[in-house]
Every structure is written in structure tokens, then in C-alpha cells.
Amino acid sequence: MSYQLEFEKLVSFDINQDGICLDVEIKYEDVSIKINAKIDTGATYSIFERHFAEKLGLEIENGMRQRFGTATSSFYAYGFRVTLTAAEIELDSMVFFAEDESFSKNVLGRITWLDNLFFGLVDYEGKIYLSKYGDE
Amino acid sequence: MLTTIEAEIDVNGKVTFLEPLKIIKKRRAIITLLDDEKPMKQTKQKNEIKKVKNDVNFRQLEWLKANREKYAGKYVALDGDILVAHAETLPEIREQVKNRTNIFIVKVFAEETIVSAGL
User: Between these two residues, B33 and A80, which has the higher pLDDT value?
Assistant: First the structure.
């Protein structure tokens, strides 16, 4: 038995980079910023460095505070409703910004990003296939 | 950080902001009066649309902050800041709101629940 999926978008990623990364745009009100973020299917939400929230004009402590865990520790981050665009696919998203200024990761996680997509990956070729779920 | 927003000043000097302005402490402002009225009106329409969307984002966040403990571990579907559905799974909630538009779906957790950061 074989299976077939069709996708709207094809984007390439740098196979030499540490992880599979995409350029994304986060927009809040009139301000938008571009970030290169790592796709992380193990991340519940998308999480970004604190200074990006400040660039968007957000008062970070006004967000929805949430505790996050890694394999070795935990930290807090603050969630905001933003528009998240990757590969020209625009999504209403809830993304988080780390409380700690030393947090230096940017990850695209599941809730309100990956769970809104059809996602195909060919790691060997550095290709990601994407479609918005529900647009099929 | 400098912020520029559009506003209208009537003949009595009353200032009406045409887009959301959120400040958390007293700020100084410099007001520049523009000559041209017409572009202002066109901008106002665009700003009204943008304002509605920004207001929705803000109100949804406030709803989530206020209600996330009650619906912890569940998906919630919001139309603006009105809860229209909640469910244990994404397919369930998608089914419940399939005939609606402009619905924001998100899973929420209690603040102290440790959710995965991946990494």
C-alpha cells in the first residue's frame, strides 16, 4: 500500500545547520520581525528569545505565564497572540517568549503552528513540504 | 522606544486615537498636526480593520489568562473573546467549530504544569 499527499509549499533548509530551521515572521500589531527558528516536534509551543518580544513592543510580563521543561531544567515564558508566517503560510498563533534574557533558542513547536499544518520532510535533500491544514 | 500612532484632534482639542495604544506608565508625547484631511480618512478605515484584529488578539490573550486554569489540559476555541467550544482533542474541537470562521483554537495548561520546551 502506498500513500500520497500534496503540498502547497516547498522550502529548502540548510542541511549543514544544527537542526532543521525555517525563516519565520512574527507580527504583532504593526511590528513584524524575522527569526530563523528550529523546528522542534518535541516542543509544546513555539518559544523565542526574550529580546524578540521587546522588538515587537510587547511588555513581556503582560503575557500568559507558562512553565516549560527541558531534559535538565525548567523555565518560564510568556505567551502572546501573534501572527506567525513561515513559507508564506500565515497562522494565528500563540507563541512564547522566555523570561530569562540568557535563553538563546528559537523553536517552532506544535500548538498553533505544527498542529495547523501538513508537514513533509526530506532531510537528505534539505526539503520541507508544507500546507495549511484545512485548506485541502 | 518611540511609538508613532495616528490620532484625530477635533476643534475642541479632544484627541481620539485611531489605533490601540497600550502603555503601562506615564509617557511624554509630542503631537504633530497634519494638514491633509483626506488621506487620514482612508487610513482610518484601514486602521479600523487593523484595530479590530489587534483588539481581538488582546482580548483573546486576556481571556486565556483568566480562564486557562479552568480549561487546563483542554483545547479551547474562541470567537473573539467568546468561548465557543472546548474539547480534549484537536479533531474533536475542529469538528465542533467546522461551520464557523475566524475561530482561534489553542490548547491551554495550568501555569505551573511543566510543558515540553523540546530543546
Answer: A80
The answer to whether the Cβ–Cβ distance between A109 and B118 falls below 8 Å is yes
d(CA A128, CA A20): 9
Distance (Å) from the alpha carbon of A97 to chain B's nearest alpha carbon: 11
**pTM for the structure as a whole:** 0.79
Contacts of A29 in chain B (CB under 8 A): 19-20, 50, 54
Return the CATH class of domain A20-116.
mainly beta
To the nearest 10°, the Cα dihedral for A29, A36, A79, B110? 160
In what helix (H) or strand (E) does residue B112 lie, and over which residues does it extend? none
Q: Model confidence over A32-44: pLDDT tens digits? A: 999 999 999 999 9
Per-residue pLDDT, averaged over A103-127, amounts to 97
Q: What distance in Å separates the CA atoms of residue A134 and residue B94, rounded to the nearest whole number?
A: 10
Nearest by CB to B114, which of A42, A68, A92?
Answer: A68
Do β-strands A31-39 and A21-28 pair in parallel, antiparallel, or remain unpaired? antiparallel
Distance from the Cα of B19 to chain A's closest Cα (Å) equals: 9
What are the residue ranges spanned by the domains of chain B? 1-67, 70-119
